[in-house]
């Protein structure tokens, strides 16, 4: 396999796992700490707003390439394997992508707080 096909396969796996983690976070068999982390990671991954906007050179894609996959890997390790496998299968069959307005609101609030802090520091 070429590097590009490996990267595409890896990206599809991460995308499926984001969706599966979203499902697992709502499952009663998932421990509360895994649910909390899963909701944060999945909400950030599906949020239309990034912590670092994509138009920022290099750093803009860093969160998509590093933060999200590392968060997913951590969450997948703490969710019971049978629960994760069940939700991976459901995610692979699903045609609808989850969206989170709450996550978008949290990211916007974080940006607002950061800008307010910078304004306060420079005034």
UniProtKB/TrEMBL annotation:
UniProt main location, coarse: membrane
Annotated membrane topology: Multi-pass membrane protein
Intracellular or extracellular location(s): Endomembrane system
Transmembrane segments: 32-51, 58-79, 99-122
Pfam families tied to this protein: DUF1232
Swiss-Prot/TrEMBL keywords: Membrane, Transmembrane, Transmembrane helix
Boundaries of every DUF1232 domain copy: 34-70
Cellular component, GO annotation: endomembrane system
Protein name: Membrane protein
Protein species of origin: Pandoraea eparura
Lineage of the organism: Bacteria, Pseudomonadati, Pseudomonadota, Betaproteobacteria, Burkholderiales
